[in-house]
Amino acid sequence: MYAANKELSEIFHAIAAIYRYKGDDRFRALAYDKASRAIASLHEDIESFAKHDRLSDIPGIGIHTEEKIKEYFRTGKIAKYEELKKEVPVGILDMTEISGFGPQSVKKLHDELKVETKEELVKALQSGEVAKLKGFGKKKVEGMLRGLKLHKTIEERMLLWDALQGAGQVLEKLKKLPEVKRAEIAGSLRRMKETIGDIDILVSCEAKNRKKVITYFTGPALAKQVLAKGDTKVSIIHKESGRQIDLRMVNENEWGSALQYFTGSKEHNVHIRTIAKDKGYKISEYGIFTIKSNKWVAGKEEEDIYNALGFKIMPAEMRKDKGEIELAAKGKIPNLVTLKDIRGDLHTHSTWSDGARSIDEIARYIMKNLPYDYFAISDHSKATRIANGMDEKQILKQLKEIDKLNKQYGKYFIKKSIEVDILADGSLDMPDEILARLDWVTASIHSGFKGDNTDRLIAACHSKYVSSIGHPTGRLIGSREPYKVDIEELIKVAKNTGTALEINSQPQRMDLNDEMARLARENGVKLVIDTDSHDLNHFNYMKLGVAIARRAWCTPDDILNTKSWSEMKKFASKKLK
Ligand code: DGT
Ligand code: CA
Ligand code: CA
Ligand code: ZN
What is the tens place of the pLDDT at every residue in 359-372? Predict the structure, then answer.
């Protein structure tokens, strides 16, 4: 991200948090949040927009935020922000975003216990001091402690999406060095785990050239800090992402064995090693050798290692020691779904609710950039007020616009849809007459996260208009736990009612997760992989959903949106009979 984009989006995010903390201007907070998101997802340098007086072209930038951006480029700061910062305890402001805390709770803790830092606040919570305050019952304090734990996972580990971005840039740069023969991501990132502890990169080069690669890797272009520096292993804190990257260097004939070893998982490798031992081999990052005479057998390519054991190579996403080795032994590794198989996206938001782009902009973007045969506009329904949900009148108007645009493009490309709220009693936030006019209906929960939501989801599956359940567990990695749901029961009902379950690809959602998606697949439930896009760049998230599906061993056949529209339609209309 451009430096100014990053700073401005952070400042606006902080201003929004301050307004929420003060509790006096909710709408202003929303406006700053929106602007912050808009800038964060901007592909171009915001400075060039400012220079050409085009800031108002950015969807999500309003009159006030435009003024603030201009001021930032004129003076280097935003006076209002400096002023606001003095009115609130900045040391604990961030904590308002942790689940179980919230601006009002943090404010109360500050006002009554005089805590100024995160450490003080955590201490007060753990010592039982907080539990003595009015309004902080046992349940509330437990919720806060759980929130802290969630928050910790994301402080210590990064989201898959963030790791992919950081690692991608570094890999490109390394590949450009003339000394580097091959370079590849390894570790949990290659396995596409939902959170990543550190990024692992493997490089092959001649031993005499290692020093040059190390000098570049630990130099100012990439490293903020050097954690460890050996002859073949170096660790840095990456300048751009602030995260740890481990680099290992191997000889060309060790490439395959090293890649196999450093891809892991540890559990997978341990199992592979016992099998090797039974067959008279030993495996290390340097190759596969006979135990008897220590003779090198293979190691140049990764598949050579597996082949030497009588296996076919399996995709990295499968390597968890959850049955994939047994499958490989039988020669039954499935052809997993890939990004190329995806033919459409059934969950996207436009300016009709909380999306940043008009339907026309989205459609044109997709036609130009993605190989899709169809996509659905699925804006929120009215119960999700914070997301500017649509009422009956608005959606009817929206349907007319979709008709008009499809006619204009000369193909029925945009499908009519909605992300309809599942209300507290399990009913849907839109009458059947309207749902009946749509091509695809995603039903989701956006409220009432505290109780057990199994019955609500099951009720939604029983609606003959509901094609798919959106982000079925509602979790946000690092900030919100999944609500309670009996996933096995949901899977059973989804199967019996012919309802699909969504794999939502938003980086923080990844919902269903890999294990649940696997359970769904094993029980014959169809899945849809959606991006839940709120802006054009979100369409790239599709690869995250595909990764979940691959970790769940899904083939194209398990994923509905690898199919033609007429087959999608067949699936949805089966319920209507
Ligand atoms: P992370 O970084 O916590 O998200 O997870 P990984 O899997 O990337 O773990 P990491 O970075 O510690 O190590 C990278 C890979 O190296 C790991 O997936 C397997 C391999 N590896 C590391 N330590 C060991 C070990 O003690 N035994 C075995 N068999 N493999 C190891
Ligand atoms: Ca790692
Ligand atoms: Ca590592
Ligand atoms: Zn939603």
Answer: 999 999 999 999 99
Q: Are 191 and 316 in contact (CB under 8 A)?
A: yes
Pocket test for ligand 1, best of 266, 273, 274, 477 (most atoms within 8 A of CB): 266
Q: What is the pLDDT of residue 137?
A: 87
User: Which CATH architecture describes the domain 264-329?
Assistant: 2-Layer Sandwich (3.30)
Angle formed by the axes of helices 63-75 and 3-22, nearest 10°? 130
- Contact predicate 184/259, CB 8 Å: yes
Assess contact for 147 and 98: CB atoms under 8 A.
yes
Taking each helix axis from N to C end, the angle separating 514-522 and 542-551, rounded to the nearest 10 degrees, works out to 60
Q: What is the C-alpha radius of gyration for the chain, rounded to an integer number of angstroms?
A: 26
Encoded tokens for 569: 């339609």
Ligand 1, atom 14, lies closest to the CA of 187
**Per CATH, domain 158-250 is 3.30.460.10:** yes
Please identify every stretch of the chain with a pLDDT value under 70, giving residue numbers as ranges.
1
Q: Which two tokens stand for residue 405?
A: 């645009």
Equal fold, 1-69 vs 89-156: yes
Global pTM value: 0.86
- pLDDT given for residue 289 in this prediction: 97
* Domain spanning 339-574, CATH class: alpha beta
Spatial separation of the C-alpha atoms in residues 191 and 171, rounded to whole Å: 16
Q: What is the pLDDT of residues 113-165, one digit of tens each?
A: 999 988 898 899 888 889 888 888 888 888 888 888 888 877 789 999 999 99
The enclosing H or E element of 365 equals: helix 359-369
pLDDT value of residue 284: 95
CATH for 1-69, options being 3.30.230.10, 3.30.1360.10, 1.10.150.110, 3.40.50.720: 1.10.150.110
Q: Is the dihedral of CA 104, 110, 113, 115 positive or negative?
A: positive
Amino acid at 277: K
Contact 402, 377 (CB under 8 A): yes
Phi, psi (rounded to 5 degrees) for 508? -85, -20
Query: What is the distance in A from the centroid of ligand 4 to the CA of 401?
Result: 22
Q: Note the pLDDT of residue 480.
A: 87
CATH architecture of the domain with range 89-156: Orthogonal Bundle (1.10)
d(CA 397, CA 393): 6
**Mapping DSSP to helix (H, G, I), strand (E, B) and coil, where does residue 428 land?**
strand
At CA 174, angle to CA 306 and CA 170, rounded to 5? 95
CB of 264 sitting under 6 A from ligand 1: yes
- Looking at the DSSP bridge assignments, the partners of residue 88 are none
Per the structure block, which two tokens stand in for 420?
């309809």
From the centroid of its chain, how far is CA 521?
21
Cβ proximity of 349 and 532 under 8 Å: yes
Ion ligand 4: residues, CB within 5 A, are 444
Please enumerate in sequence order all residues whose Cβ is within 8 A of that of 83, keeping only pairs 6 or more positions apart, or say none.
Answer: none
| Structure tokens that stand for 108 in this block | 């109360």
Distance 203 CA to ligand 2 centre (A): 15
* CB neighbours of residue 474 within 10 Å: 22
Distance, CA of 444 to CA of 226 (rounded, Å): 46
